[in-house]
Amino acid sequence: xxxxxxxxxxxxxxxQQKETATLGMWVFIVQEILFFGGLFLAYTVNRHAHPTAFGxxxxxxxxxxxxxxxxxxxxxxLTMAMAVWSATxxxxxxxxxxxxxxxxxxCVFLGVKVVEYKEKFDHHLIPGHGFDISYCSKNAAAxxxxxxxxxxxxxxxxxxxxxxPDLNAHAQLYFSLYFGMTGLHALHMVVGAGLLLxxxxxxxxxxxxxxxxxxxxxxxxYWHFVDIVxxxxxxxxxLINRHLA
Amino acid sequence: xxREHYLNATYGMRSWLLTTDHKRIALLYLISVTxxxxxxxxxxxxxxxxxxxxxxxxxxxxxxxxxxxxHGVAMIxxxxxxxxxxxxxxxxxxxxxxAKDLAYPKINLLSWYIYLVGGAFVLYSFATGGLxxxxxxxxxxxxxxxxxxxxxxxxxxxxxGFSSILTGLNFIVTVHTMRAxxxxxxxxxxxxxxxxxxxxxxxxxxxxxxxxxxLAGLERMFNLGFFNPAYGGDPILFQHMFWFYSHPAVYxxxxxxxxxxxxxxxxxxxxxxxxxxxIAASSIGIAVIGxxxxxxxxxxxxxxxxxxxxxxxxxxLVAIPSAVKVFNWTSTLYKGSIAYDTPMLYGLGFIGLxxxxxxxxxxxxxxxxxxxxxxxxxxxxxxHYIMVxxxxxxxxxxxxFWWPKITGRMYPESLARIAAIVLFVGFNLTFFPQFILGYxxxxxxxxxxxxxxxVLNVMSTAGASILALGYLLPMIYLTxxxxxxxxxGKNPWPATGLEWTTDxxxxxxxxxxxxxxxxxxxxxxxxxxxxxxxxxxxxPAPAHGDx
Amino acid sequence: xxxxPEQASNFAPQVDNLVIFMIAVCLFFAVAICAAVIxxxxxxxxxxxxxxxxxxxxxxxxxxxxxxLPFFLLLAMFGWGAAIYVDYRRTPADxxxxxxxGKQWMWRxxxxxxxxxxxxxxVPVNRNIRLIMASEDVIHDFSVPxxxxxxxxxxxxxxxxxxRPTKPGRYHFFCSQYCGTNHAVMGGWxxxxxxxxxxxxxSGTAASGDPVAVGEKLYTELACNTxxxxxxxxxxxxxxxxxxxxxxxxxxxTVIADDAYIRESILQPNAKIVAGYAPVMPSFQGLVTExxxxxLTAYIKSMKDQPPPAxxxxxxxxxxxx
Lengths: 245, 547, 322
Description:
heterotrimer, B: mainly alpha, 15 helices
């Protein structure tokens, strides 16, 4: 196994090696865009076909948690960018610190996602699993709704059913896409967390400086990409047709 | 033969199974794609025997439906798509550009293992219940109604997609960053241009089929409803997503073969290819336009007339870059010094058969005709002309052309020429009658047919038996030649690419010293080291662009 | 051997004329290319082993010529085809409407007066006919080669197609979108009749001759054979040895298979389900006359001495997932 930073056999110069690594990450990211793109397409088509059900579904997501996660992820991109800056200016201790910060924020994001997913499970909103969009309207206490919120919920479901008799089936479609898109995103974050862990270990050994910081830069690219995907997911899933009450 | 080369540099299973040498990985792929070719070929044999008689007495309807599905899946995903890129592309691209290996040798090996895992899932599906949805997996048949082993199959194809993606990523980055000094873009062999264009399609298209099959699989496992109208989904959404990849996929299957032909023709006519710039540009053009024609598979689904008209127009457009290639290859033969060696026979066979296949594609692009021809044997004949008459002939032509480089030995020339001719004849006998069958209205994917279609079906099966012989012969004599073939030198033809300046077989690291390229591509005039006399000119080589 | 089907609709000559144009143009290019290749192959055969060819790198004028000229030819092909297609997709106003339902693996076609046919379509000649089509399960396709028309039948959608039959006769139709096991036998016949014959057919019934023979014919025509297989392994029970025997039902009770039982099974199939089978049989209410029920009963009765299958019961449930 080569140590990080050594010249691999197929390359002529370190410059060529760095250029190759960076180009590779960009091409990989383009491919990932197409990967998520298919899901975004399915979401768009289905949203257009079932606006009421998707609106009802979206309102079941927690704006607080989603919004907090957005802030957390953007902050993690900031710490990641600071890590790259620290590497290019040879501030080795700061590299490790900022990378740890990025990892921590990433884990906070994943933790919040776990909380959100658990809530969906409790509220019978897992597709194919006894899915019932009207569960909370019928069991306000179990969902922790106040009296006022419960009434809003009941009204929303009633109006929804009037506009779309197949509300439950179409809302299940919404949640299938919700879990598919956020799940795929979370999977990418887990991979990112793994990569960050490796980076932290290498940074701890002082491997990165102005001469050599390619892994920090490229994993940074990957992390920013994952962040951007969330920046699209959040408004699409949480914000469209949101009632703020 | 050189004393030490990539085949004997190290010994033992581990040195092969854990190799990062692009040449050894190419051979690993050669063995696996050949295996899947036989799997798909076995199914094809059974299909053609079954179709000898209406009433189909060889297999049950269920079995027949599995046969054509599994034939398609095995051939498309596990033979045609990897064949030229993973075997010839892997072996040659680094050497052609003067590099020691691809940009990511370990990822190259990973690609092969991913391919094997995907293949294992699909073979598992074949063995436990089979697959009867058609290789196109249309919903809701595949996601709800089929009783066959759909889930492991879509998992296998999903996994296999990553093999393609990583290969494409490797090729693109390699061509950008690993070229030797002097190897400018416009000195790249057209084989490399073809694979660069193919890799663009790998990267942009494959992720979409991955997501599509994932959604279809999830729908099947958890009854979700993306494509099921009973739950508000739409079967047509599946078709759009499926064909968004699967149409460009056919260009993945043909562009590399076109790259092979672009190497063979100048070599065996001993002159530069006519219209290099245009052939290079046409590869990119085909890749790009190929992404915006997918709905020509859906003209009769009830979609908007406007969109059908738009897609028909675009489909006609994509014919133009292909035609440009055919005209340029033909023009290269003019005033050439033409040899009748086997690779040239495959090359010329390709031109003829691809021309017919491509022209019949126009019939299908034409909306008024597609109403009649959609989902008939006309379509089957059209795509087999391209994929077998085109891609497979390109693959075999390339295998023969580069065989001395890969193995250090020549194949037996007379026998190989006979096999090429047998293939060509058998192929036409098999598939030309199917054009007529299609116009007469025989639908595809039929285990049984009305008696008036029998004569043409019998002709087709007779041709298939000859075609099978044409495939078996090379398997036999190529294997024989690895031990008993005449030892080839560095450059037996001779040809002009960088790969022909290395040993046959090459060193593990390809070159003793990094080459510095200062000659134009396909230049026979100013290369005395090729050992040719004839019309050697005294003027210096033209800089690229002067003619 | 015919190279093309009969021309029996308004679209047929249009499509055939276009294909002749396409064949002419494509044949010209194919022959030109092949002739050039073969000619050059022989004319420029290498004379001495060291010879090289004359280095010609390209010719911009040629490149432009063989991009522009084909472009205009392609434009013509595209335009002509698009014209036919747009006409085909714009259903005229004055159509005789037939409602079509495709399901695995049969077609039900309903005439304007409500009368239904199975795998048969009777239409008058020289009238614009529109088919309004829906699917009960997977995607099918209704195609009539002699008319040069087809259209997919997609669940969750209604798809229209139209044509004007121009020649009386019987023309094969096929299912043209792979739909599962019996895709290849899910076809039938379109019978085009003179207007007065069509009117006569609409008002009359068929049914004459030996009831068992008529019943046997109906057994195939009404597609009973796709489910009620002699070995009992289809989706429905075999008729062998059934008539007059004791039949075990899914709810555990037993019943004697007499004429009333058979009639009820045809008209209200879910009333009594035989043990080991699923309730998937469609009702034939409105699709069969009393005469036809009698004929079918006679046919089933004629098989009462046939040995019943060894192990009856469906080999697989309708949707067993893996």
